[in-house]
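dumping this here before i forget
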Amino acid sequence: MRDPGKAWQMTQTTASSFPKEAIPLPSSAWALIVQQLDEQGGRSMAESPPNRRIYERKRYSKTLRCIVRLKQSAGPAAVYQVHTRNLSAGGVGFFFGGYLHPGTACHLALMDREGRGHVLGGAMRWCRHVAKTLHECGVQFDQPIDVERFLDLATAESD
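structure:
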């Protein structure tokens, strides 16, 4: 984990300058999107590589709990609020309004269960089209995290 005191300042802004949601939708719409993806089994078998997961994923559908800072090859870094889907010790899944190239470096600011911010480095591992401009993205953290800092594992649903 990066220095949470310094790095978390990227999310400590006034309401007017807080990063815009990458895809502004009401909670009910997010719930429907996740439900439909769950019913389809997540990724289609044609798209899915063999399961190489090391860590169990837990549902982490927390709007406004994740800020992502992306540094693409051209131009300055951009900061967005994203809607997360799941979290594991090795990475996080979230929704974004466009395609993100695998290998893209990023920093994610996640809020723990006690409201403290943690900034984690990582890289985009995969990105898939869901509908229209909506994409589901997976980031692998540079270092594994303690998921229990962010979720109550006794009540967290596996994803």
